[in-house]
Structure formats: C-alpha cells, structure tokens
Automatic annotation (TrEMBL):
Protein name (record): ABC transporter substrate-binding protein
Keyword Ribosomal protein: no
PANTHER family the record matches: BLR6548 PROTEIN
Keywords, ordered alphabetically: Signal
Domain Leucine-binding protein: 28-361
C-alpha cells in the first residue's frame, strides 16, 4: 500500500507539471529533477515529497506575494545525461525561476561542466550531495544547506578514532560522488597520521559489490566507511559481515535507513552507523521539526518521517524565503541575490548562513545508528 501511495503521489506531481500550462502563467515555477526510478528511487521520492509538502503548505496560505508555486518534477533515473536534458527542459520549456533538490555529485557536476546553471543564471537550492567539487571552487549558482562529504568524513573518522578503531577501510561508488567521499576520509586520516587499511569500489547504478567485499575482507579492518547509496550499502553490509569480523560499518548521509532495513532485514542492518547532516526529524524538539511533522500529517498523511524528506522540506523553506525577499517581480538573478541575504537564517532551531561569497549554509554533522527494531538511534 505504501509503495502504491508513493507512486500515486509522484505520478500526481509529474502530471501536474504538464497539465497546468498557460492557465497558470502567473505561477512561480520551481523545477526539481530527481531519481524517481533506478537504484536511488526511494530516496528521490522522499526528496520530492519533502519539497512538495512545504510548497503545498505555502500555496494553501496565499502563496508568495499572492502567486502560487508550481512544482515541476522530472525523473532522471540517477542518469547524468538525463539530468542534463531534463534540467534544460525545466529551465527552457517550463520556465523555472529556481531549481531544488537534485541528486548526484557527478550529475550536478556535469550541469556545471556544460554551463547549464551558469548560462541560465539560475539558483539550485539544497542539492542532495556533499561533493566538494560542487563547493570548491566557489560556484554562485548552488546553495548548499547540508555539510560537505569532507565534513561528514571528519565527523565519522573522529568518532571511530574515539572508539579506538584505527584500521579503517572505505567502500565507495566509482564516480565523482564516491571519490569525493574517499578523498574526505583519506584527508581525515592523514590529519591523524593514519592511512587507509583498504579500499573497494563498485560501479554506479548497480549493487554488485563483490569485488569491494573481497578487497576489504582481505584487510580485515576494524571499521568500514561506506560512500554509497541504498542498495549497494545494503548488499555490502550484509556480505562483509558474512565473510569478515569488521566491527563497525558507517555510511555517509545519502542513504535511507528504511531501505536498508527493507532490503536486508533489521537484524542484518542493526548497528550500521549513518552520518546525518540535518537535525533529528523524529522528535519535535525544535520548531522546524514540529513544523515539518505537522505539514507531513496534513499533506502526506501516512507517509513516514525521514531525514531525506526533512532536508528538502528545509530546502523548500529556504527557497521560499528567497522568493519572498525577491519581491513581486521574481527573476532568476533576483532569487540568487535574495538567497545571498540569508546571513543568519533560523528556520526554527537550525540556522543557515549564506552570503555573496559563501554558499555552504551548514556544516552540522552527527552520527546515528540503526537499532534492533530498524529505527535510527542518536
């Protein structure tokens, strides 16, 4: 039932993007290209959901200066060429004034390589990636609300070292995303005069981790940092424990713990650590979590809370604040300038900081663990 509900919701988003047309010429168009199919589909659907829920809330409360937000959603299947094609379509055919919540370091890097964002002078807010190549050198078009993979790697390595685990290996996706995370772990270890115990790579858009399992098992490390997405993380976690005595597995933030538990069961997933770059979304301790949970109950009843949807909910709130500050005449360049003014933007217990020369709004990192019942523990 839940899978059907997801499909209906996403199908509705896609249908809406084509059905409104000229009658909604005064709408503010926000484009989102996300992986709604393929290995990252569950993550992509939650990304879309988080943004959609916030936009629905804004539209129900008068929109932005009286104008509705039209959320145009397109499925790239996590494929680089599709990301490029569909982004051009969202900018050109659909007339998006801003973009939100894309996934994939390599996918977004290709947009920069082909001058898609710069050429259109358009902002991309809250991409679901921490790749340093998208942050350095400075790129004025991308507004990051999450810490980078280097920040995550530093936090993970620091925690492992505090547990006296110094023989650390890395399993990574063989693409810019995975290599960015690998570089982050290497840098964090070098800072502590340590070296990697082993590395193992797997091909993007597959869950064939056999070579990675074999390479890392030979080294018998104390811990493995995984720079991978859901299906490959699940496959590796199960298999490495079957053939080695590795004590701790930790993944960077771009995985969905529910998917891991679904794929390999709670017992096999138990104890897997996951870095997080957003506040804990399951308890309404701070105002933004309460706001998120209330919106989810109203606009996505029955959907479970998650870090992924919460992140894009915050991303949508940041973008809407930028749209509000732009004024009634919304332009792409105006949105960029408005977002730059969010120098101390408190979304509700979580503060983001942007400026004309800073696009990394947060460096917050904490590590959670999948518990015996499959739920995340802090």
């Amino acid at each position: 039932m839940r899978a059907l509900a997801w499909l209906q919701m996403v199908t509705g988003c896609l249908a809406m993007s084509f059905a409104i047309g000229v009658s909604a010429a005064d709408d503010i168009v926000v484009g989102q290209v996300a992986p709604l199919s393929g290995v990252l589909a569950e993550t992509g659907k939650e990304m879309v959901l988080g943004a959609k829920v916030y936009f629905d809330y804004i539209n129900d409360n008068g929109g932005v200066h009286g104008r509705k937000i039209r959320h145009v959603v397109k499925d790239d299947g996590y494929k680089v060429d599709e990301t490029v094609r569909l982004t051009k379509e969202a900018i050109g055919k659909d007339g998006a004034v801003a973009l939100i919540g894309f996934a994939g370091t390599g996918n977004i890097a290709e947009l920069l390589k082909q001058n898609v964002l710069q050429g259109a002078g358009i902002a991309l807010v809250a991409p679901y990636t921490g790749g340093e190549v998208l942050r350095t050198p400075f790129n004025p078009n991308i507004f990051h609300i999450r810490a980078g993979y280097a920040d995550e790697a530093e936090g993970i390595v620091n925690q492992l070292i505090s547990l006296n685990m110094k023989r650390i290996a890395v399993m990574y996706q063989d693409d810019p995303f995975g290599k960015a995370g690998l570089a982050g772990v290497e840098a964090a270890l070098k800072k502590r005069h340590l070296e990697l115990a082993a590395t193992g790579a797997y091909e993007k858009n597959t869950d064939n981790v056999s070579d990675a399992v074999q390479a890392i098992a030979k080294a018998n490390p104390q811990a493995v940092v995984m720079i991978s997405v859901g299906k490959s993380t699940a496959a590796f976690s199960k298999r490495i424990r079957e053939v080695s005595t590795v004590a701790q597995l930790v993944n960077i933030s771009v995985v969905n713990p529910k998917e891991i538990v679904r794929l390999i069961g709670a017992e096999n997933a138990r104890g897997v650590g996951i870095a997080q770059v957003m506040p804990y979304p399951f308890l309404p301790i701070i105002p933004i979590v309460k706001e998120y949970q209330q919106a989810m109950k109203k606009y996505a009843p029955g959907a479970e809370y998650s870090y992924t949807s919460f992140e894009e909910f915050i991303g949508a709130k940041v973008l809407v604040e930028g749209l509000k500050r732009t004024g009634k005449n919304v332009t792409r360049q105006g949105v960029i300038h408005a977002l730059e003014t969010l120098s101390e933007y408190d979304v509700g217990g979580f503060t983001l900081r942007f400026s004309p020369d800073n696009r990394v709004g947060s460096r917050f990192v904490e590590v959670t663990v999948i518990g015996r019942d499959g739920r995340l523990l802090r």
